[in-house]
């Protein structure tokens, strides 16, 4: 049975240690979290006025990459909605913006019809308008997956094998004196990482210099998930697990 332990949790980052598993499973989790967890992103932009220095296409691209706080319980995929793709309130969010220069337009200037939806990072710059320049548009945000476009990717997810050390004739005492205090702990003749959150891969070069080899475990892993702000790291991880469970239900063994 897979053993999962929380090592670190912050507002937009989570790190867990996963034991008794394999690289294929870890990669499946990484892919599910990166490409299968849906989030809201601006898909269509209808420009009414744009006399800024940026073309409509450039602005639309920038708007699509603005991270939007997402409520997965309130929205459906547009292609699965009862409105049959007509973009109703159950599957889309209407957005408007109206500005006149001189002013810097930020993500906080976006007006959402659903007050529960907002920019994850309000200070994200969109465009600077000079004197008498104007920008006015209507936009629509919908749910999507990173498989379709990176703007629907919920975060950065990666993993590596847990570091294990081969001491043999290595000079453990000299290595531990050179490393920051508390980086390693000694267990008999062996050594192991004291706190994986504080471990730095550059320490492995110091160990190598003192004759201690580092290898990455093929059964124990460090799984790190950094959210772009649309969902919390826990929400992304939970949804990724649900996605994998749903995929397993579809598997038929003959």
3D structure, described in words:
This protein has 254 residues and is an alpha+beta fold. The chain is built from 5 helices and 12 strands. Strand 1 and strand 2 form a beta hairpin. The longest helix is centred in the last third of the chain and has 17 residues, at 233-249. The two termini are 25 Å apart.
Summarize this entry quickly.
With 254 residues, the protein is of the alpha+beta class. The chain contains 5 helices and 12 strands.
Unreliable residue runs: none
Q: In the CATH scheme, what's the topology name of the largest domain?
A: Gyrase A, domain 2
Envelope shape: elongated
Query: How many E strands?
Result: 12
- Helicity level: 10-25%
**N- to C-terminal distance:** 25 Å
For the record, what is the CATH homologous superfamily label of the largest domain?
RNA polymerase, RBP11-like subunit
| Second rung of CATH, namely the architecture of the largest domain | 2-Layer Sandwich
Rounded mean pLDDT score: 94
**What is the alpha-carbon Rg in Å?**
24 Å
Primary descriptors:
single chain, 254 residues, alpha+beta, Gyrase A, domain 2, RNA Polymerase Alpha Subunit, Chain A, domain 2, 2 domains, four-stranded antiparallel beta sheet, 12 strands
Would you spell out the secondary-structure blueprint of this structure?
Elements lengths: L2 E7 L3 E7 L3 H14 L2 E12 L5 H9 L27 E9 L2 E4 L4 E2 L12 E5 L4 E11 L10 E12 L5 H7 L5 E4 L2 E4 L9 H7 L3 E15 L5 H17 L5
Antiparallel strand pairs: 1-2, 2-12, 3-8, 4-6, 4-8, 5-7, 9-12, 10-11
Helix pairs in contact: 1-5
């Amino acid at each position: 049975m897979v053993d999962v332990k929380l090592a670190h949790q912050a507002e937009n980052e989570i790190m867990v240690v996963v034991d008794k598993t394999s690289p294929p499973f870890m990669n499946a989790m990484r892919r599910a979290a990166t490409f299968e967890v849906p989030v809201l992103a601006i898909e269509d932009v209808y420009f009414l006025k744009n006399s800024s220095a940026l073309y409509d296409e450039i602005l639309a691209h920038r708007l699509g990459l603005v991270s939007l706080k997402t409520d997965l319980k309130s929205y459906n995929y547009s292609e699965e909605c009862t409105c049959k793709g007509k973009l109703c309130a159950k599957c889309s969010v209407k957005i408007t913006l109206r500005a006149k220069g001189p002013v810097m337009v930020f993500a906080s200037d976006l007006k959402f019809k659903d007050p529960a939806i907002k920019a994850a990072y309000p200070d994200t710059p969109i465009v600077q308008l000079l004197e008498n320049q104007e920008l006015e548009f209507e936009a629509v945000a919908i749910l999507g997956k990173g498989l379709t476009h990176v703007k629907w990717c919920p975060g950065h997810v990666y993993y590596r094998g847990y570091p294990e050390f081969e001491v043999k004739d290595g000079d453990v005492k000299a290595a531990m004196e050179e490393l920051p205090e508390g980086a390693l702990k000694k267990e008999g003749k062996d050594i192991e990482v004291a706190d994986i959150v504080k471990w730095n891969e550059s320490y492995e070069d110091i160990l190598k210099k003192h004759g201690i080899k580092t290898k990455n475990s093929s059964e124990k892993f460090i799984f790190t998930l950094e959210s772009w702000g649309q969902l919390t790291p826990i929400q992304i991880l939970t949804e990724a697990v649900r996605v994998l469970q749903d995929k397993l239900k579809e598997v038929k063994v003959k």
